[in-house]
Design a protein that fits this description.
60s Ribosomal Protein L30, Chain: A; 6 helices; 4 strands; 2 domains; 46% helix
């Protein structure tokens, strides 16, 4: 029983160290640490299943986007930006880190019970496959279909952009 508590204390220690070290790093530097955090948070060991934990919040996801790499993003007026995917030309594929982010968004949505808006700037439907894949990942991770909305906007941006927005 003591070893169980020791393991939990060690995990919380590393989580605290991770969160306190986030202040001075760019998003790309955090990618590996976020991957480790995701693996840690998805552990399915029976001794940890009885522990009540809080998933990464939508506020934390929004704060990650506000780091230096994404400082010029136009934020929505009626919501909080919690996911951002940008594609140049024909390179439209969800990466593993994109999929991991969507799992974190799904966990935050289930815990906080908010509506998600998937917003695209592509009025020519080039992003339909990616948007459908995003929707499927969210649904397969417990988000109900009535909590997901889709919207296309006219944007003069050169890149194809998909924003995941927590609606207020």
């Amino acid at each position: 029983m003591i070893t169980c508590y020791l393991k939990i204390c060690i995990k919380y220690f590393f989580l605290i160290v991770f969160l306190t070290s986030c202040e001075k790093k760019t998003f790309s530097e955090l990618d590996k640490n976020i991957e480790e955090l995701i693996k840690w948070s998805l552990l399915d060991e029976s001794e940890y299943q009885s522990i009540n934990y809080t998933p990464v919040s939508s506020r934390t996801l929004a704060d990650l986007l506000s780091l230096h790499e994404y400082e010029n993003i136009v934020h929505p007026k009626k919501g909080i930006l919690i996911g951002y995917f940008s594609y140049e030309n024909n390179k439209m594929v969800l990466t593993e880190s994109n999929k991991d982010l969507l799992i974190l968004i799904a966990k935050a949505q289930i815990y906080e019970n908010f509506d998600i808006l998937i917003q695209s700037n592509d009025i020519k439907s080039n992003l339909n496959d990616i948007i459908n894949e995003i929707r499927i990942i969210l649904l397969s991770n417990g988000v109900k279909s009535n909590n997901i909305r889709l919207n296309s906007i006219v944007d003069i941006s050169q890149d194809f952009v998909i924003k995941i927005i927590k609606l207020l």
